[in-house]
Structures are given as structure tokens and as C-alpha cells.
Specification:
The chain has 294 residues and is an alpha/beta fold. It is built from ten helices and ten strands. It has an eight-stranded mixed sheet, sandwiched between helices. The protein has a two-stranded antiparallel sheet with strand order 2-3. It starts with 12 loop residues before the first helix and ends with a strand. It binds S-adenosylmethionine.
Length: 294
């Protein structure tokens, strides 16, 4: 069974990037009345306590969401929307509860939209089911204790022909790096007009560097537009255990989108420089944004 538990990392810089992109994408898609299907292949527990045992073990949120909420300068719109989403789950100015992708999405969805959440880890799935039950969302939200790479295929194409898929594995199993492009290839065949959002870690591993290249190549082959956003908060090696006082941690991550809303690129162009500045841990911090038409 997996050892990765998202509770250790909730609200870190990777979550800030991922959830900022998720919110901006959803906001655009929800401008249309027709029902939207949201598929979350790797849902996690849904809600996390930032003052709980897991989160305080690493305190990654202190260098992530906490810095956004504490920012004194006005935030770019996409970051403001992210901060508002987190604040909606908290009283007061600090975040004690962090909403994962299921709760971020559900808060924005309308009654006729649908959210399918896949989570394979037994205790995270149990926590997710408990958290979702409290929403009393009825048929709007379904939790599946299934392999997300497999389970989502059966929902595509969706009846209303509108879907957003978030694929957010932990990549602790090396095969995730191969399963992600295989899934994208399959869903693009099943439902070419879906919006597909994939998160990945930018770490010193050949598979991690190869992944965006593979995603770009297969998206271009399918004749679809893509957008690729990256956020780096520190150098890969410089921060690794310096003086023993700091855990190495993840230096950077990326979001790759297929069929991105046209509003996403300008929104991220405004938000990413500020995000990199606010979350910088050393002089290697930076951001990237590139895209290509179909
Ligand atoms: N998407 C969540 C969020 O943004 O709040 C975080 C997800 S976390 C990075 C990845 C999750 O995927 C973990 O909770 C892990 O237990 C789960 N997982 C790992 N492999 C899986 C699989 N094949 N299918 C479904 N869930 C899986």
C-alpha cells in the first residue's frame, strides 16, 4: 500500500499552484449553463487540518497557503480567488483547515453538475467519504474507492458533453509517470473536447522531466491546444537539508492542461510572477508559462 499521505503536504506551494489553476479553470467552465462533469482521479481526503499532527510534522503550508493569506500587497485575481476559496473554509485570517481539490471543486459547482472522486488509500478514502457525507450533496458527489486511472474512463464521454478531469497522482510509484500519458491518450480518444489538467512534480528524475515532453507530443498529435505552467520555489539541491534544519522537500511543480479555457493564460500570466515572489525560498525561485494551439 502507498505511504504517501497528502495531509503532510496540504497547502504547500504545489497545492497553491494546482488549486489556483483548478479554480480559474472551473470558474470559466461554469459560465455556461450546461452541466459539467468533474473527475478527480486522485482525490485525497478532501479536507485537512493544518494544525493537526500530519501537517505540523512538515509545516509545508507555512511556506505555501499561509504566505498567500498573509500577503499585504493586492493579489492578482486568480490568487485572490484562491485565497477566497481557502478562507471560505476558515474563520479568522489564518487557515486551520485546508480544502483539497474535491472541496475546492464542490464549493464552485452547481446542483446539476457532477463530481466523481477516486481515492484508493483506505484511510484517505474513509476520511473522504466522511467529509463528503457532511456536505449532504446527494447525487452531486460520488466517492469511488477505485483506481482513478481506470475508473474515470467509464464516465467519458459525459452525457452533457462537458467535462474537466484533474489527474493528481503522488508519483511515489514510478509507473505513475507512464500511466498519466497513457490515460491522457485514452481520454482524448474517448472525449476529445474535454478539459484535462495534470499535475506533476519537477524533480531531478528523468521521468519527471520527460513527462511534460510526452504530454505535449501526444496532445499535439491529437491536434489539441495545451498550456503548461510551472512554479519553482527553490533550487533542487541548494535547499536539501542545508545545515540539517530544513527538510529537502519539493522544489517545483507543473500543471499541464489540454483544451485550456482561453481565459487561463492571461490569468496565470498575471498571477505566476506574484506567486513565485510570494512563495520564493531562495534565489532559484521562478515560474514558466507556455502554450500551443491545436
Ligand atoms: N488531488 C488532491 C488535492 O488536490 O487535494 C490530492 C491528491 S494526493 C496528491 C494523491 C492521492 O492519490 C493520495 O491520497 C493517494 O492515496 C491517492 N492514490 C494513489 N494512487 C491512486 C490511484 N491509482 N487511484 C486513486 N487514488 C490513488
Amino acid at each position: 500500500m502507498f505511504s504517501y499521505r497528502h495531509a503532510f503536504h496540504a497547502g504547500n506551494h504545489a497545492d497553491v499552484l494546482k488549486h489556483t489553476v483548478l479554480i480559474a479553470t472551473l470558474q470559466h467552465l461554469l459560465n455556461k449553463e450546461a452541466a459539467l462533469l468533474v473527475l478527480d482521479t486522485h482525490a485525497g481526503a478532501g479536507l485537512y487540518r493544518l494544525d493537526g499532527d500530519y501537517a505540523s510534522t512538515s509545516a509545508e503550508s507555512a511556506d505555501g497557503v499561509a504566505r498567500i493569506l498573509a500577503a499585504s500587497a493586492p493579489l492578482a485575481q486568480a490568487l485572490q480567488d484562491y485565497a477566497d476559496a481557502v478562507r471560505a473554509f476558515n474563520r479568522g485570517s489564518a487557515a486551520r483547515v485546508y480544502p483539497g481539490s474535491p472541496f475546492i471543486a464542490q464549493r464552485l459547482l452547481r446542483a446539476h453538475d457532477r463530481l466523481k472522486l477516486c481515492e484508493l488509500h483506505p484511510s484517505d478514502a474513509r476520511a473522504l467519504e466522511g467529509n463528503v457525507a457532511q456536505l449532504e450533496a446527494g447525487r452531486q458527489v460520488a466517492v469511488l474507492r477505485e483506481d482513478g486511472f481506470e475508473a474515470v474512463r467509464k464516465f467519458l464521454p459525459p452525457p452533457a458533453r462537458r467535462a474537466l478531469l484533474l489527474c493528481d497522482p503522488s508519483y511515489e510509484i514510478k509507473s505513475d509517470y507512464a500511466r498519466v500519458p497513457a490515460l491522457l491518450q485514452e481520454v482524448l480518444k474517448r472525449f476529445p473536447t474535454g478539459v484535462y489538467a495534470i499535475w506533476y512534480p519537477l524533480i531531478a528524475r528523468p521521468e519527471a522531466h520527460e513527462l511534460p515532453r510526452r504530454l505535449k507530443a501526444l496532445t499535439a498529435k491529437a491536434g489539441k491546444p495545451w498550456l503548461h505552467a510551472t512554479l519553482t520555489v527553490k533550487g533542487g539541491k541548494a535547499a536539501a537539508g542545508a545545515g540539517g534544519e530544513r527538510r529537502p522537500g519539493l522544489p517545483a511543480s507543473g500543471m499541464f492542461l489540454v483544451n485550456p479555457p482561453y481565459t487561463l493564460e492571461p490569468a496565470l500570466r498575471a498571477a505566476l510572477p506574484q506567486l513565485a515572489e510570494l512563495l520564493a525560498q531562495d534565489r532559484h525561485a521562478g515560474w514558466g508559462l507556455e502554450s500551443a494551439g491545436g
